[in-house]
Amino acid sequence: MYSTLSKQLAKKIETGFITYMELFNTYTRLAPKYFSEKAWHATHLNNKQRLRLYKDLLFPLAKECTEMLEDKAADSDSWMQVKSEYHILIANRPDLELAETFFNSVIRKVYPKLTIDEDLMFVMEGFDSCTVRESEELLRTYPSFLGLEKNVRQILDDFDFGAPFMDKEQDIKFLIASVKKVILTRYRVAPETKTQILKSVFYRNKAAYLIGRTFLGHKWMPFIIPVLHGEKGVFVDTLIFDPNLMSSMFSFTRSYFMVEAEVPSQVVGFLLSVIPHKKIHELYNAIGFNKHGKTLFYRDFLHHMDASEDQFEVAAGIKGMVMTVFTLPSLNIVFKLIKDHFEPPKTMTRQEVRSKYKLVSLHDRVGRMADTHEFEYFKIPIGRISPDLMIELRKTTNSLLKVTDTHLIIKHLYTERRMEPLNIFLEHCSTEEGMKATEDYGRAILQLAQANIFPGDMMTKNFGLTRQKRVIFYDYDEIEFLTDMNFRVKPKAETYEQIYAPEPWYSIAKNDVFPEDFKRWMIGRKDIKEHFLSYHQDLFDPNYWQGIQHRITTGELIHAFPYPDEIRFRPQEKI
């Protein structure tokens, strides 16, 4: 390739990335406006548009690059020159790491059947620094000598939510009382004590969040302040210090935040200091840069492969009728492939399954559905594939496989956090543990319903438990919008023929659902079942489901609180 063409291609890709970032930031900057206006439907649409943006720009750009390259689309030497020129163009960008990932996305779309290639892509050598610079551009700092009340008051004055506070003085009292109860009963304020809060506000659904930390007791203590916009104005909903709750708010089961990040690595660096148990790729996902999160996930995967020796094997649990799932015992990830042929009664196509996963990626996951990364031409050293797994893959997904002397190449798969299947957990847990888990199982189904998602197949094998024992749904091939379902009362048999009919004697349409029938199969353990049926009576009431449908169809967007009601300052306040 001539040097001129290399430079032209590099410049075109850089221009595409700049366009992407400008539009990404445009969508992000709409979040505070919509919050101030309580424009919740606009918020929902804005989030979807930002999620679609990457591919909407990538595909036409890849087409242009393919046309420019003509017969050199799969020429490695040509791409190495383009990469070198591109690296020069982006070297001084504050979002360098995102620019590198964007290049990777382009080459994967242009270069036919390309697996991850460290020579042609930014893989292991990519930018990976996430240090916190305590600059005024990034943080607001509040020194201890001002006193608790002045600092709390100043914090609420410094952040403009575009609407008047409902009762700022009461908010200040709530915050002061919470700090005194949780923090000042255990630690003493010292001269070096200070509080820092990210200047950028985090928006998601109907809430805005301030993310901060206080240096106290020779360590940083993180906190989150959720702010809601209710019927009477803006108000502080609670003050969160619990690291498990904070981690859950940035979980792989939740939608991405809308937050301005001029230097993304610094925002992620601050978040890492606040939520240290999260991996860096999870934090990039959480602030909307999920494509770069995917790059970092893969980088972690390669590091793990170098540091481990175990073999990939078929995942534990009941085998699915639609997906073949395998895992690496030393890694908390599962790999999911759509089968070549589905077992009865499944009648859908592979593309229909992919569309369900796409639906989940664009929808509000309300902390109850697992995020996934989608890969094409994913390669694994052949020696790391167990014989039993190879047999299973050949039997169920052979069309997706390419085997070389050194690697197994999988044409398409999803990766997802590994969780313990709920059905397996219920086989060995105590009665008390089972009661808690099944309570959350029911809550998960109802919270999905409030987000307009009907799981379809609600068997416990399709739900898993996170490290914190939170129940998550992860089998998406039968999900539907709740508003498309017809919840019915089951007709009562009256005649002899009806009572003893081998098949239902009444008509059943495709989307008819009889919640009363859930009782028969949802929970099998006798020591747990009665408690579950009593605790979640609403699950079996068609009127309850219809009530949720009515709220959705009449325009209500039901907010999913990522923390329990009992810690809210005003638990009865509506938004």
UniProtKB/TrEMBL annotation:
Isocitrate dehydrogenase kinase/phosphatase (AceK) regulatory domain boundaries: 10-308
KW Membrane (keyword) present: no
Coiled coil: none
GO CC entries: cytoplasm
Gene Ontology terms: biological process: glucose metabolic process; glyoxylate cycle; tricarboxylic acid cycle
One Pfam assignment: AceK_regulatory
Entry keywords, A to Z: ATP-binding, Cytoplasm, Glyoxylate bypass, Hydrolase, Kinase, Nucleotide-binding, Protein phosphatase, Serine/threonine-protein kinase, Transferase, Tricarboxylic acid cycle
An annotated Gene Ontology molecular function: [isocitrate dehydrogenase (NADP+)] kinase activity
Chain ranges of the Isocitrate dehydrogenase kinase/phosphatase (AceK) kinase domain: 310-564
HAMAP family (alphabetical): AceK
Protein name as annotated: Isocitrate dehydrogenase kinase/phosphatase
